[in-house]
Amino acid sequence: ALSYTWGSPYQDILTGDPIVPPEAPRQISCNMTLLPIGQNLHDALKTFKEVGIGGLLWVDALCINQADLDERAAQVALMGQLYSMAGEVLVWLGPSEKRFKDLVWATKEFLPAFKGHLNLPDSPTAFPPLHVLDSRWGRKALGLEDVPTRLLSMAQFYISCRWFTRAWVAQEVTLANNAVILCGPEMLRWDELGLLAVLMRVTRVDTGIMGPFWHRLKEKGCRRKVPFTLFSEVIQWRTMFVYEPWIECFPGPNRDIAWLWASILLSRESQCADERDHIYSVLGIAATQFINPSS
What we know:
This protein is α/β, with parallel strands linked by helices. It contains 13 helices and six strands. It has helices spanning 39-51, 60-63, 69-76, 79-85, 100-118, 135-142, 147-160, 169-174, 190-202, 205-219, 233-243, 255-267, 277-289; strands at residues 2-3, 26-30, 33-37, 89-94, 179-183, 186-189. Helix 5 (100-118) packs across helix 9 and helix 9 (190-202) packs across helix 11. It is globular and about 60 Å long. The two termini are 26 Å apart.
């Protein structure tokens, strides 16, 4: 199943306006019928073919009749089941973007070096904050060059990528059995990103990066709301949902309601075309755990 963004995949860091490249009309042949598709979906399908990703693929724009409101409403109720039963969820961030390399670097090099420095077990719990925007610290403590520059570049990519702002990604990746991230032909395992996100949150490294970055954006006249922490709750929620018995955090007879409330909090800062999607986009998470879908 594909998780992607309708419209432009990237946005201006200062204004939040979509960066819209020149877009030619695109079509795909499906069941002997030509169907119009957006540029971002076209880029995703073209890249999947080039890197050898094949098999059956579910895409909302093609598998749901977008002109039939009844069909759309019926399919929305099944989204949680669909993504939880998919053999793999492909997260398409967009065409190649040079700063994505720094996100890959953070998971492949910074994460193991940082864990080694803190002498962490595989499941971090709580650690004191560290000042990571000092190149001397990165060189001395981690043995890595240009740590501040690369972490800030990673933060810029995160803020510019519209996929991370979508409300629907909450259940699309949280319920996935396996998720793989693609930015152009480059791939990254979702769980690697999740572990990086959790580690950076519990050590407060994310606020150490985003604090100065946020003030710098404000000085440049930033008009949009910028997250004060690096990586959204969705990324961490996926990791915690899979690896930790989080249901135990909600004791008592109303634990299903508590879980639903916690799930809704995931989407409160997300973007969606229809405000109701702040609720619909996380119902699949709650339904999978406690709520009888027939009710």
